Amino acid sequence: MTLVDFQANQGQIYVDLFKDAATTFKAKGITVQYLGNAEGWHFTEKAIQDGINKSFLAQQDNKTAAMEQEAQKTRNQTAILINQNDNAIKVATAQAVVDAATKLQNAKEAAAFQNELQVQLLAAQAKMAMATKWDGRMPANILPSTSPLLLNLGDGK
Known about the structure:
This protein is mainly alpha-helical. It has a domain at 1-41. The protein contains three helices and no strands. The chain is rod-shaped. The N and C termini lie far apart (116 Å).
C-alpha cells in the first residue's frame, strides 16, 4: 500500500492489527482486549519521516492560512456593518435636526403671521371704536403734521 493509502486507512489498519493480534495470542492462551498505538507512526527512514513531517506542517499552515482568511472576511464584514450602522445613525440624526429646524421655521412663520393678524385686529377694533363714537362732526382742531402732539402710530395706511 502507498503512504497516502496508509495515512487514509489508519483506522482500518488498527482494526485489522487487533484481529490478527487477538487470533495470534489466543492460540498461545492470551486474551487481547485492547490494542492501540500510543506514540503514533514513525518511519525508520529519516527522509520519509522528514517528508511526512514537512507535508503535515504544510497542510497545517494551509489550514491556518484559510482560517485567517475567513477570520479577516468576518472582520471586514463586521467593519462594514459597523460603518453602515454609524452612517445610518448620522443620517437619522441629520434628519432629526432638519425636522426640528423645519418645525422651528414653521413655528416662527406661524407666530409672525399670528402677530400680523393681531395687529390687524387691534387696528380694526380701533377703527370700530372710532366709528361708534364719532358724532358725525368734523374735527374742531387741526394740527400740522409736524406737531409734537401727534403720535406716530404707523405709516397711515
